[in-house]
Amino acid sequence: MTMDAAASKEILRHVFGDSSDSEDLEPGDGSDSDPTRFWEPIKQIKGLWLCRDFLSPQHQSSLLSTIQNEGWFTQASHNQAMRFGDLPAWADELSCSIRKVALANDYVFYPVVLGSNDGVKENASPFPSDLLCREPLFDQLILNSYQSGEGICAHVDLMRFEDGIAILSLESSCVMHFSQVEGTSRENDPPVAKIPVYLTPGSLIFMSGEARYHWKHEINRTPGIQKWEGEELTQTRRISITLRKLCQVE
């Protein structure tokens, strides 16, 4: 017998608590008292969700200071760092906040393609229940520092990692493009052009299912490429924090 989504979420709330159970949440880090922070599905890509204001400007500044003080990027040539297993305290806090935001948002609003209403209230969650209840939620961290003009080529994350990947974007805004992996489209579906997703400082995306396995993601920051709504974006240093879970070795 399959448990419905509402019952599953209620069990998760009982085990992990709700965002209102925590007194140390800062504004913009997942508190459900702020109605401007919610998950938005990227409707063209199943399993891709965006939380535009996951971290407040104050929390972003605090996190960046912590990263700097811990010496993750002590030299200009050091632009990537990884951790496996025990993550730093701030990464554990991010994981906790991600779970709390997912539990706090029972509903999302988004436009419907068919129908007369401008939007509908749909019982949905960015996290499938089996991912949300795993412990730890994430056990691998990759921290990247991109200078102006630097990006990352189109790729699907390695299969050594489980489903469910979170990416936090800090400092410079950017456009991340998604392109479908060849041979993964549904039968009779027309080819899909690259899907742009605008990432502002403090925004977080979460990929699961098709978004994680059937779509490549990339950031091309070549001058003239980074545009949103016809305007070229001003590029500065960008920090990205990716949280993943290693597959269990049998």
UniProtKB/TrEMBL annotation:
GO CC aspect terms: mitochondrial matrix
InterPro entries cross-referenced by the UniProt entry: AlkB-like, AlkB-like_sf, ALKBH7-like, Oxoglu/Fe-dep_dioxygenase_dom
Domain of life (superkingdom): Eukaryota
BP GO terms, sorted: DNA damage response; fatty acid metabolic process
Region annotation Disordered: where it falls in the sequence: 18-37
Biased composition range(s): Acidic residues: 20-32
Domain Fe2OG dioxygenase span(s) in chain numbering: 137-247
Family (UniProt): Belongs to the alkB family.
Name of the protein: Fe2OG dioxygenase domain-containing protein
Organism per entry: Malus baccata
